[in-house]
Amino acid sequence: MAALSHISAFLDAASASSALAATVETRVVGDDGGGAPTGGLAVFYANCQGSGLAHWLRRSARFAARYPRCVVIPAHDLVDRRAPAFTDAQAAALADCDLLVHQPIADRHGPFATTAVVARLKAGAQTVSFAYLYDEAYFPLFPERSGVNARGAAAVRRYVDAAAAARPETPRAAVACEIRAALARGAVDGDALFDLAARTRDTLATLRAREAECDVRCADFVASRGASDTLFLTQNHPASPLLRFCADAALARLGLPPLAPDEAACDDANAARIPGRVWPRTVYDARGAVPDAAPPVPDFYLALFDRVVLRDLAAADGGVPDAFQ
Q1: Alpha-carbon gap, residue 274 to 2, rounded angstroms
Q2: Could you give the C-alpha distances from 93 to 97, 203, 315, in angstroms and in order?
Q3: What is the pLDDT of residues 67-94, one digit of tens each?
Q4: Is residue 272 helix, strand or coil?
Q5: Which helix (H) or strand (E) holds 45?
Q6: Nearest to 114 by CA among 28, 24, 210, 209
Q7: Where does residue 322 fall: left (phi above 0), alpha (psi -120 to 50 degrees), or beta otherwise?
Q8: Is 217 in contact with 253 (CB distance < 8 Å)?
Q9: pTM for the full model?
Q10: Which among 149, 172, 173, 303 is placed 20 to 30 Å from 213, CA to CA?
Q11: Which CATH number fits domain 23-129+231-264: 3.40.50.12080, 3.40.50.1240, 3.90.1010.10, 3.40.640.10?
């Protein structure tokens, strides 16, 4: 199945590029090319969500005045590629910063762990921590390096198994094809097919546990939003409303006022331009059941569904059904 061809249809050139290779370089935010800024230095040490929070904090005139210099260090790059150490520029930024905004990183990551990074800071430097933001229930099927995310795949297989068991006289492949056709119409209950309710509870519980020791907490905000609200653009790609909420919480921690109305105004779901995949929203990218008259889903959902059930069908029936060709 050519799942990537379906996915790429929803990506412009810049998004497609960043989907293959996320931004990993250390970036100086706010340098317009007219020379290095001077004054307070804020360092954002996190995954790509750090660049998103940096964008929204720098919208605050009070924050930008206090920290006219802003550096983003991509922690995920250093950890993922098992870098031996920080670069000289990264180490210098950490040693010089007046504010470190970071996501907790476990001690097993050695020099990149939170404890090791905080030890590099100068006396008097402030820190603000925020949790890794993730909600898999917004995107119940999403691709991973090994295929489809395990929990989404398991939920789909359980649904197909139960439907096939209820109709033993019907070939399993035919049952799966009927489910696929209903999925294409958006006519399958999301909780039944994707186990949305349990996954929402679990991911919210995980977020609460992660942020229990952090300065910025947003789980209550996430839980209070309706199913139609867009807080994520992928399972781990927070949208503007969620990042804006986190920015206000960070500003409060720093003793600064929240974003002013003109600073907070935005109609762009990815105003921060966080790199990576951005899936088109569907009725299944929510936390509730799907209504009877739902709009059709994008082809990439069908492609991922095919990747989940194709191998099982081939093994059970000795071949691939025509609907999956």
Answers
A1: 26
A2: 6, 34, 55
A3: 999 999 999 889 888 899 999 999 999 9
A4: coil
A5: strand 41-46
A6: 210
A7: alpha
A8: no
A9: 0.83
A10: 149
A11: 3.40.50.12080
